Structures are given as C-alpha cells and as structure tokens.
C-alpha cells in the first residue's frame, strides 16, 4: 500500500504517555488545522488505544503509533500488531525509542511489515554508529537523538547534525533525518531546521507548557519560518 | 472506579493477534449476543488499537486488552498506558501471558493501576508455584496454564485443576481460577468447568475452526450447560 | 546438595560491576579474614567470570553471583547457567535486582534450580507487595529495597523495615529479610541491624570510599556490634 | 589492546549451555591440540563462570564468551561485564545470538567495548538485511544463520551463502562471514567452507554425538581439508 508523502520540514508532536483521551484529541485537532494551513507534514503520536479516535477526528495529520512489533497476524499475545494499527488509522510508527528499545531482529522485521502496509517508520538511534546500522534497514526517517540529551533541554549542535546527516544519507540519500534532542522552545525548532535537520519534534516542551496549544502552534510556525529562510 | 462484576462460569474468547478489524468485530458481536442471552460473563480480547471499535459496537461483553504496563501517564513511550486502555473502553486486561512475560515489578504495578481504574486483571501463571506468588498480588483472575500444554490440544487434568484451585484460594478465596490449557472443543469447555474451574477460554480452537462463530456459540453454551449441572 | 548455613546478622558486600580482577580479589580476601574472625556470614558478589578466582582464593565468605537464569543444561546460549556458577564455587546468587529485573517465570525457575544445587538465593523486591509475592517462591533471603532509595543515601525507616519483616515472615518465617537501601556509613549498618533487619549490605559506600578496605572492616564490625547489643 | 589474528578457515565449537566444568574442559583441551596441529583458528565458547578454567588450561584456542553487555565498569548488577570476561581470559564473544537477542543499542556498545579490550566479536544475524545493519557496526565476524534453520539439520544453501557474503563484504570487506546453520556432520563442514564461508561451527552435532571428541576432530579436519582443496 502507498505511504503518505512527507512534506519537508516535518514536525512531530510526540506526547508519549503524557496525554490520552480528550486532552490528546484537542491537541491533535489543533495540529490538524496547522497541517491544513501550512505545507508541512505533522506527525502526532498517540497511545495505541487512542489511535482510532485521533484518526477519525482528523484528516491532515499523520497519525503515528509509539511502537510496533515486527509480527504478522497469529499468536503474538500482548504484542503490537501492525495490521491492527493500520486498521485503526495509523500511517506511521516510531520504532526503537530509547524508552522502548527493540532487538535488532524485531526492528528489522517491523520495518519490513510497515513497508508492506504503507506505514511510515521513524526509527531512533542514539549514536551515529547506530544511525548507520539502522540506515541499512531503510526506514523512512531516522531520529538521531543522543540519549544523554533527552530531557535536558540541550539541543544537538551543528557538528552532530552534520555528522548524522552525512552518515545516514551516505548510505541511503532518501532517508530523512530528524533531530529532536532538547527541543523546548519555538526558537530551538527554528534553529534545528536551519542547521539542516529534515524535521524535528517535541514532547515535554509542549505537554508541560502552560499553554500547550499555543506552543504547538508556535513550534510548527517556527519550522515553516525556518524552511522559508533556507 | 468500580469494576465489572464477574458472573460465573466466565468464558474468555482470546483471539490473540490472529484477528483484527472487521473479522474480529463480527465475532465480538456474536459474543455480545451470547452475553445478553446467558447469565455468564464473556471476555473478548482485542489488539490495543481495536479496543475502541469493539467497545463502541458492544455492550454486554467485557472488552479485554492483551497486556497493560504498570505505568502512570508520563514518559513511557511505546508502553501500554492503563488510562488509554480504559478510555477506549477496556474493562479487563491479561497480564504476564507466556507470549508476553512481565517482570514481577511491572506485573505488580500493573495490578495496582488496574485496581485504581476499575479494570479487571487476568494474570497468567505457568506453575502452581507462580500462581501462589501471583495470588499475593491480588489479581481478579489467575489463569493457570502449564506452558508446556499451550497449543497441544491437551487439557489440564483434574489433579492440576484441584491443586491450583487450592493453592490460589488458600491465599485469597476471592480470586477466580481460569483453566484454559488445550481447550479445543465444546466438550473440553464442559469438562473443564465441571472439574471445578471458575472459567475457561479459547484461542485457536475458535479462530482456526471452519466456522468460528458456531464454535464460539457452542463453547459458551457448553460452559452454561456445565454450570447448570453443578 | 546442602546450602551454606547463614549466621545472623549477615553482611553482603556487593561491588556490582564496579570491580573485577585483582581489585576485587583483594577486597574479597579482606572479607574472608573478617568472616574468619567474626561469627557472621559475609556474602561477596562478583561478575560471573570472576567467581572462580574469588572462590579459589577464599574459604570463609559465601561467593555470590549477581544473577542466575532459571535454566537447566541445554541450549540457553548467553544465559547464566546455574551449574556453571556452582562449579565455579558460587554458593549464593542475587535474583531480580532492580538493575536486572526478571520475569516472574524465570525468577520462579531460578529459585528451584538454586535449591537443587545448594545455592542460596537473595531475591530483590521493591515494595512490600512484591516481597510477599516472592516469599511464596521461598528464596532464602529477600532484599526489600524501595527502588526510589537506591543510590540516594537515604536508608529505609523503621516503619518500612517492620512492615516488610512482618509481610515476609508472615508467609514464611524462615525467610531472612535484608535491608540495604542507602547504606553508606558504618552507622547506617549498625542502625539497620538494630532496627530489626536480619542482614544488610553495601555497594557504593565501599567501592567509592577513599579506603574501601577500611570501610568494609568498619561496616562488618558495626554489624557485629549491633548484633551484640540486641 | 591487540586482538587475536584469525586464521581462515576458522571453526567454532559452541557447546552453549550443554556443557560446563570437566566435561567442557576435556573437549576444550582436544580443541587446543587441534589448534596446535593445524593452521586454523578454533573458537571454543563456555558459560561465563567456566571461562577462567578453560583459559588457564589451554593456549591455542580462542576462548569465547556466549554474550557480553555493552557496559563499562560501574553499576550494571547482573550484566556481563567486558572487563571481567577479558580478565578471565576470553578473547572473543558472541553477540546477539537468537537465544539471547540484543537491543541494537546494547549490541552497538558491546562492539565498541570489545574493540577497546582486544576482544573479537562474532555478531549473529538471521537475515541478509540484519547482516547489513550489523556490518555497519564493524564486528570481526558475522554469523549469518537463518533462524528457521537452527536445530533442523538443514544447512544454508549456496545462494544464501553467496548473498550474505556479498551483502556483508560489500559494506566492509574485512568482516569475516560464518555460516553455521544445520551443521551436523563433518561433510556439512567441508561443504560449507567449500561454498565460500570464511568459517563455520557446531553445537548439537558435537555435544549430542556418541563420541563428541571424535566428531570435533573430524569437523576441524574437514574444515582443513576444504581449505586445502580451494
């Protein structure tokens, strides 16, 4: 099946397990309006059981799972079935996040299953070496996030961004590179895109903000602004 | 929050990851009619992303997740958030299934979270010793399934059923005991309830049957019949 | 096979993966002299591949593995084989430490294998509820260590110690209870034994001390002193 | 530190957890004689706690661990410390075996630690795609073993051997490729080397043989013979 086309720069709103139900739905709807207004791809993640509701309520965002297992329909009790995610409307999934590390074997199989179903894959690496290994598995996006920086409010510097871009695109020039370490303000978003990331995203900078909707709007507009100045 | 009341004997239709989408929904609707017709609790499991659709389409069955993590809203990227399952309509969850074994710590926390949300817990043990350990965590139901028998078509014998019943209820008499090893025919269901199990259930005996709907009906009616003869 | 007899109060020197080779051997020899001098059981843990050397060089300490899997000789590539540990001289093992959490199934099987081989088991719990579940598996010692306190320098308070003692011994009065949260000085050791722990132990308070040998001596003597004042 | 030099074709005797203690030591000594007699590298794996004894008793074989974690000295309770393995005499380690799959992150870090210590790495892949990903991490040897064939007695065919050789050496021509699926006779060893594998190895074909010593000798000599006919 055909996958969604990614319009660069892309922005990922990843509320992890901070949000569910109505609170998540409201922010997904804000993101949906932004994805209609601007020529930019916006991914919104949701807990597995929320994917269906988010998908039914939106039409422009790319509804994204937080994880997916590399299994086919069968036993797999308690695992995350790709077909079920796709049926619920998910069109992308994170894989191998530092909070849910995958075995190489499961990661490899999950990318193959996603490809068959038309689900975009965002695979996480916490070093340039890992990013190169993952690039051989041909996901759509690699998130290069030095684990040490997660939650510190420090963003990846220019050297790291250039190094990972070169490492990944040297293996497969079609893979997009996402940089999201320490994004906590709209200015971080602007700077990261300006430095050469294909996309970026945010969790706590939005969900812990006093006004999450406004911060989401500001960040998406900062990504647009950075793209226009390039 | 209050949990559903379990009417004995209960029956668990657990299609694992064999089914999703419409095929699963149709069987869930059959189960819902049976749960209306008979004074028996019927649990139907679904992949996480299918829970919401099953829940919206049914009213009598107990919609059941295949797994749940012992986390609270927060980071937990890729994990199975209890609040999200409950919001989607799940009122029960399996825990520690042999195909998704949990650490003792995660199992313990998941049972606590489920209790807070009013979600019933079906915790799996593959020996009498494990069943006793789990009984101290006070789940609602313990599934005593000797791992060696899963998928073999051999049911637990009377000794094993008595032994696990005594072991579990000796620790907490309110915990229900489910026996489901090797249930492949309606007669297996009848015999297992007759031998003293509080409930039973089935996966491949239904999903791999030529006529899954009829087999589901037959099994639920066999459970009823066994209850009436006691 | 017969297990070593535990002389109370016991002390566990657990250098985790901080030490290996000669540095570890020297401290193990210090512990061996103390175990000869005082009527107290001293457990010394070592990385798996160091167990043999420690065992050959000592005679009074109880050489202890950091983990063991619940397997029998066979495939199990990369797992920690009980028979191999025992052959190398280990006579005790930690299980389910917060840095290496075990599935309930593996934990249950490991305790059974250890019992067969005459290897003492020290199983870790991070809540009273978990301690009760583990007590049903009948390990020799339960380490009750609220995970939140590990590495903070805060010790468990009297309430927690009493509560876990009662919870564990209420299920099986022969299980010993170890309390080791936040032990960083000899005084912490004294106080913890005085408050009713059957034993205690230490990692960073010793290995990060300027004079690890002296701190080890001081702690063991504090345990002796506490025992004598009871 | 400098790593051992690998003399092709190499042979890996991998008794997994089938053997420990004296039974393992005797076969390791047989392998040591063979490694002296023939210009071939012989790796012999051992459970962690047996490594030290095997290493002390042999001088020509490459003593090999079954697994190693990507950690540095520090906490890591229950994990497999690289420094401890090296101190015990291990000069190689398997990584990511199908019976002990590793997260990509742990695998990547383990290869880096091994490199620092002068420990050879044999990393397992169960598909060509995985082999390519692992090749980017630059282990010394990649074992290409279609998981489905493990223990079936079926060997990899010529196509699979050529395909994996090209895939791996296309990324890094210095990485050696091991093929070991279904090796159960000396003739399997001969044929696999003849078809182009840099090395091969065996578990159950040796340990379950009536005369394991003779089978070990026959297999090593078959590898030599295949090398001489090339």
From TrEMBL, chains A, B, C, D:
Presence of keyword Isomerase: yes
Gene Ontology molecular functions: triose-phosphate isomerase activity
PROSITE patterns to which the protein is assigned, alphabetical: TIM_2
Cross-referenced Pfam families: TIM (PF00121)
Alphabetic keyword roster: Isomerase
The protein, known as: Triosephosphate isomerase
Organism per entry: Streptohalobacillus salinus
């Amino acid at each position: 099946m055909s996958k969604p086309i990614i319009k660069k720069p892309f922005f990922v709103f990843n509320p992890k397990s901070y949000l569910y139900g109505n609170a998540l739905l409201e922010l997904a709807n804000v993101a949906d309006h932004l994805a209609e207004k601007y020529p930019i791809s916006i991914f919104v993640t949701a807990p597995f059981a929320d994917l269906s509701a988010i998908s039914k309520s939106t039409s422009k965002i790319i509804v994204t799972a937080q994880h997916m297992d590399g299994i086919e329909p069968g036993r797999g009790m308690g695992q995350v079935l790709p077909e079920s995610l796709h049926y619920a409307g998910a069109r992308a999934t994170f894989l191998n996040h530092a909070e849910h590390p995958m075995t190489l074997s499961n990661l490899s199989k999950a990318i193959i299953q996603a490809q068959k179903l038309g689900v975009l894959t965002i695979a996480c690496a916490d070093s340039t070496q890992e990013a190169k290994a993952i690039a051989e598995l041909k996901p759509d996006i690699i998130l290069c996030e030095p684990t040490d920086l997660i939650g510190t409010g420090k963003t990846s510097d220019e050297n790291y961004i250039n190094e990972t871009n070169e490492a990944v695109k040297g293996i497969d020039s079609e893979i997009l590179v996402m940089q999201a370490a320490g994004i906590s303000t709209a200015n971080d978003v602007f700077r990261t895109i300006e430095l050469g990331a294909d996309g970026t995203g945010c969790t706590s900078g939005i969900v812990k903000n006093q006004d999450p909707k406004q911060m989401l709007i500001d960040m998406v507009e900062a990504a647009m602004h950075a793209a226009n100045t390039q």
